[in-house]
Amino acid sequence: ALDAPKGDSGAVWHDEADNQLPHVPTRPLEQKHAVNYIVETIMASEPGTITLVPTGPLTNIAMAVRMEPRIVERVKEVVLMGGGYHVGNWSAVAEFNIKVDPEAAHIVFNEKWPLTMVGLDLTHQALCTPAAQKRIEEVGTPLATFVSGLMDFFRKTYQDNQDFVDPPVHDPCTVAYLIDPTCVETRRCPLDVEIHSELTLGMTVADLRGPEPSAEECHTQVATKLDFDKFWNLVTDAIERIG
C-alpha cells in the first residue's frame, strides 16, 4: 500500500497517479487491530523468529509492549527507520516518524530488545542518482517504470524543499540491512528519545562518546554508513524479481 509521503518530502499525491500504478495483487484488510495482531503473532511464534521493521511512527509497537510485555523477550530484534543522531527533518533535530509520537518511541527505544536505528544519517546516503535510476529503468517492467517516475517526482520535490540534488530513499534501507548486513555499517551506542523539551521534542540522542560498548552492555545501535553500490544492487534486484 502507498501511504502519504513522509514529512521531509513536501509532496502531495495527485489523483492521476492512481492510473499509473502497476497491477499488483490485492488482499482484504486485516480485521484485527494492529496492536492485537502484533501481540498475537509474536506470542504464537517461536521466540527469536520475529523481527519488527517499523517504517513509521512507533505507536502500535509501544502499545503492544504495554499490553503484553513478554513480547520483548520473544522478538529477535527491532530494525526501524526513524530518527537521526545529527539531523532532523520535521524539526531541526527530530525526524518525522519519531516526532509524530515521541512518547511511543521513548518506550520502544528503552525496552531491552536489540534495536537498530536506521536514521536520516544513513538514509540520506541512499540517494537515487541518475545512474541508479537508469539501472532501475533498464529492468524494463511496469513496476520499474513506475518506480522511476516516483524518483522523478521526489527529485523535484527534494530539490524544491530540501535542497537535495537527488532524492534519498528511506524505508528500503531497513530491509536492505536485514537482507545483507554488510551493506550498512553500524555503531553500538546508548540511544534515547527526548520527550520533555518543547525545543527538541522527538530528538533521538545517541551517545557516541568513548569506546563502543559490547552487546551485553548496550542493546541499541545506529546505522552510520551505507555501501551505495550494494544497496542499489539489492533494490534493483528486488524490482526485477517482483516483475
Automatic annotation (TrEMBL):
Pfam family membership, one: IU_nuc_hydro
Organism listed in the record: Slackia isoflavoniconvertens
SUPFAM superfamilies associated with the record: Nucleoside hydrolase
Protein name: Ribonucleoside hydrolase
GO biological process, one term: purine nucleoside catabolic process
GO molecular function: purine nucleosidase activity
Every Inosine/uridine-preferring nucleoside hydrolase domain range: 20-233
Record's keyword annotation contains Isomerase: no
